[in-house]
Design goal:
Layout: H1 7-35, H2 44-47, H3 51-76, H4 80-110, H5 122-139, H6 142-158, H7 161-197, H8 209-219, H9 235-269, H10 278-304
Helix pairs in contact: 1-9, 1-10, 3-4, 3-10, 4-9, 5-7, 6-7, 7-8, 9-10
C-alpha cells in the first residue's frame, strides 16, 4: 500500500519539504527587509561582496550536482568504481565551495562588516574608530610600562647604593619607552576631546575625522589596526541577513559532505560493498540538489540585485 518508493526516499522528500519552508522564511524576510529599506547597500565595494566569487561558487555547485547524477547513474549500472570517483569529486567541489566562502567571510571580518559592528551614521563611525584607537593605545602596553616605572622607582628608593645603578638603568629605559609611546596616547586624547567638543564633527573633508585619523596612523603605525571609518546605511541588517542565509547554507553543505564521506569511506574499504548503498546515494543526491537549488536563489538575491 502507498507510494511505490522506499521509505528512506519518502522520508527525504518530507525532510526537504521542511527545508524548503525553512529557507523560504529566510529569503522572504530578506526580500521584505530589502524592499522596505530605502538606501540598502548595493555597492559591492562598500559591502565587500565579491560577485565573481559567488558566481564561481554557483558553477562549482552546479558541476557538483552533475557529478552526483553521474554517480547515481553509475550505481544503477553497478559501476561502483566510477560512482566512487564521482562522489569523491563531489566532495572535493564541496571543499572548494567552502574555501571560496571562507575567503569571502575573511573579507567581511577583515573590514569588520559584522552584525552590530557597522556604523550607520557619521557619529557612529567616529565613535567606533575612537574605541578601536583606544584599544590600539592600550595594546602598546603603555599602562603596564607606567606601572612598571612606579614599581622600579619604589625599588630604587629602598635599594642600596650598589643596586641603584642597575635599577636606575631600568628606569631610564622604561622612561624612554614611555616617552616614545606617549605622543600616540596624546594624539588619541586630543582627537577624542575635539570630537566631544564638536570641533571635529564631519567624517570627511578638510580637517575631517578621517584626515586626523590618517595623520595619527602615519605617525604611529600601531594605529593601523583601526578600521577605516565609513558609513553603511542598514549595514548591520545587511550583515545579519548575509551571514544568516549564507551561514545556514554552508552548514547544509557541511552536512552533505558528511553524508558523502560515509559512503566514500565504505567504498574506500571495499568497493563491492557499495552494492547495498544505491538508495542512500539517491537520497543524498536529492539533498545535494536541494543545496544547489537554494544557492541558485541566494546568489542573485544577495550578490547581483
Amino acid at each position: 500500500m502507498g507510494l511505490p518508493i522506499p521509505n528512506s526516499k519518502l522520508g527525504m522528500w518530507l525532510f526537504l519539504g521542511t527545508e524548503i519552508m525553512f529557507f523560504t522564511a529566510f529569503i522572504g524576510t530578506y526580500i521584505v527587509y530589502r524592499i522596505g529599506s530605502p538606501g540598502w547597500p548595493t555597492d559591492p565595494e562598500v559591502t565587500h561582496i565579491r560577485v565573481w566569487a559567488g558566481g564561481l561558487n554557483t558553477f562549482v555547485l552546479i558541476l557538483s550536482s552533475y557529478f552526483v547524477v553521474v554517480a547515481h547513474e553509475a550505481m544503477g549500472h553497478e559501476k561502483y568504481t566510477k560512482a566512487f570517483r564521482f562522489m569523491v569529486a563531489t566532495f572535493g567541489l564541496a571543499v572548494v565551495f567552502l574555501g571560496i566562502k571562507g575567503y569571502e567571510y575573511y573579507g567581511k571580518i577583515t573590514h569588520d562588516i559584522l552584525p552590530g559592528h557597522v556604523a550607520e551614521s557619521e557619529p557612529q563611525a567616529m565613535n567606533k574608530a575612537l574605541v578601536e584607537l583606544k584599544a590600539a593605545v592600550a595594546g602598546t602596553g603603555l599602562g603596564e610600562l607606567r606601572e612598571e616605572l612606579t614599581e622600579l622607582k619604589n625599588e630604587a628608593a629602598a635599594a642600596s647604593a650598589d643596586e641603584r645603578d642597575s635599577i636606575d638603568g631600568q628606569i631610564a629605559d622604561t622612561e624612554a619607552r614611555i616617552a616614545a609611546l606617549a605622543p600616540f596616547e596624546d594624539a588619541y586624547k586630543k582627537l577624542k576631546d575635539d570630537v566631544s567638543a564638536g570641533t571635529v564633527s564631519a567624517l570627511h573633508g578638510a580637517g575631517g575625522f578621517d584626515e586626523r585619523l590618517a595623520a595619527i596612523q602615519e605617525a604611529h603605525p600601531a594605529a593601523n589596526s583601526v578600521h577605516e571609518p565609513h558609513v553603511i546605511l542598514y549595514g548591520n541588517l545587511f550583515a545579519s541577513v548575509y551571514f544568516l542565509m549564507t551561514g545556514f547554507h554552508a552548514i547544509h553543505v557541511i552536512v552533505g559532505m558528511i553524508m558523502f564521506a560515509v559512503v566514500i569511506w565504505v567504498g574506500w574499504q571495499q568497493m563491492s560493498a557499495l552494492a547495498g548503498w544505491h538508495d542512500y546515494v539517491e537520497n543524498i543526491g536529492l539533498y545535494w540538489h536541494f543545496v544547489d537549488l537554494v544557492w541558485i536563489f541566494l546568489f542573485p538575491l544577495i550578490y547581483i540585485i
